[in-house]
């Protein structure tokens, strides 16, 4: 007679099955819950973290709280620190980090999940010098003049990476390491030639910093990382792709839409070792408050061809298996096949733009934070909602600007 076999415990789940479960969970919060079931599951899941697909992004609110793409709150420390010693004035989210600004203008990088922090001790003084030399901005902008922040490499790969920050609505660019910083602007000769002193967007590619102008000129910012504070604007900007004076920000519509306009926003993003220019076409109805009724109706994507001299933008209709999460503060390309839960390749997942969500205390009621957000399919030109209708309705009640946050499975 065969010996009676006692039933296996859930604690004895084979690692291969546990790995299969984790592979099917696109949310980092769900993966954490699985690991918290028992010690054997936690131990079995640990070696498999690096083989798992990247978790889906979260939506970050202006108050520092986070929700997943189903609208569920993420139970982790708030992005914004609030304690007896310091209170952060604001932040910019990018990738899995937050660029934090204290009330005194002190800046730092922080990973809210791990608690890792990198002080940027010289950045605020560099920005203050730029503000002092500006005719349009005062010292108050040391706290609220930041537009976008990016990093040259992850903190776990390089302990003191380059951090680049657009400030003063793109009129200046601050570049910092932990103990050094510089603030530069478009040199006068370039401003005269292009007709603009602004930078629309910035991106790192292979550790090099690039800047995009409103006329779609692409410039390499030539840096000596060991002597940042000695850099001068006139010697930093090297043109890779010439500005096109035909490119505009505002276009008047035809006779079928009298009095209305088209707005074109431009983004610069790295995707699978390529540098992309994304044009976002938006329709702005006549006499409508910005942010309430403007709608995105088309995207155009171009890749930088830097093998020729001068370089040029070449239009593309595919991301080559990638999906792009697009936003004013944070843009990130991911391999769609590595993502679960329906992330589609050749799609742009886009946020409502920052400019349309002014802070309530200064400019009145905020615009709908998800009014002009969605998913654009490059293959057929179709749009669909960014999140389910029920989630959309719930998030609208919060009336806070949203941005992308990409948690790493640490």
TrEMBL record:
It holds the Pfam family Beta-prop_KIB1-4. It comes from the Eukaryota. Residues 93-377 form the KIB1-4 beta-propeller domain. InterPro entries: F-box-like_dom_sf (IPR036047), KIB1-4_b-propeller (IPR005174). Signal peptide: none annotated. This is KIB1-4 beta-propeller domain-containing protein.
């Amino acid at each position: 007679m065969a010996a009676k076999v006692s039933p296996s415990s859930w604690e004895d789940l084979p690692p291969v099955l546990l790995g299969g479960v984790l592979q099917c969970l696109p949310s980092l919060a769900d993966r954490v819950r699985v690991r918290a079931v028992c010690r054997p599951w936690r131990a079995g899941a640990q070696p498999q973290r690096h083989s798992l697909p990247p978790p889906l992004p979260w939506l970050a609110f202006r108050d520092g709280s986070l929700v997943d793409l189903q609208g569920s709150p993420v139970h982790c420390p708030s992005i914004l620190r609030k304690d007896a010693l310091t209170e952060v004035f604001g932040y910019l989210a990018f990738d899995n980090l937050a660029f934090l600004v204290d009330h005194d203008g002190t800046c730092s990088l922080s990973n809210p999940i791990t608690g890792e922090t990198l002080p940027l001790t010289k950045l605020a003084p560099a920005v203050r010098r730029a503000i002092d030399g500006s005719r349009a901005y005062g010292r108050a902008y040391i706290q609220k003049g930041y537009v976008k922040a990016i990093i040259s490499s992850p903190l776990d790969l390089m302990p003191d990476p380059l951090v680049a920050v657009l400030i003063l609505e793109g009129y200046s660019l601050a570049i910092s390491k932990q103990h050094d910083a510089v603030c530069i602007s478009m040199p006068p000769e370039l401003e005269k030639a292009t007709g603009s002193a602004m930078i629309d967007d910035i991106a790192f590619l292979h550790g090099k910093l690039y800047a995009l102008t409103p006329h779609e000129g692409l410039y390499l910012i030539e840096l000596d990382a060991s002597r940042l504070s000695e850099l001068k604007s006139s010697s930093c900007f090297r043109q890779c792709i010439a500005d096109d004076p035909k490119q505009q920000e505002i276009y008047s519509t035809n006779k079928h839409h009298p009095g209305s306009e088209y707005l074109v926003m431009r983004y610069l993003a790295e995707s699978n070792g390529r540098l992309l220019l994304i044009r976002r076409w938006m329709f702005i109805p006549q006499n409508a408050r910005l942010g309430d009724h403007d709608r995105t109706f088309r995207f155009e994507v171009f890749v930088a061809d830097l093998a020729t001299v001068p370089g040029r933008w070449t239009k593309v209709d595919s991301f080559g298996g990638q999906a792009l999460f697009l936003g004013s503060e944070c843009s990130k390309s991911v391999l769609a096949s590595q993502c679960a839960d329906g992330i589609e390749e050749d799609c742009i997942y886009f946020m409502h733009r920052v400019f349309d969500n002014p802070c309530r205390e200064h400019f009145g009621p905020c615009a709908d934070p998800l009014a002009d957000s969605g998913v654009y399919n490059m293959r057929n030109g179709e749009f669909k909602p960014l999140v389910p209708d029920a989630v959309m309705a719930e998030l609208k009640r919060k009336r806070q600007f949203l941005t992308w946050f990409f948690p790493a499975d640490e």
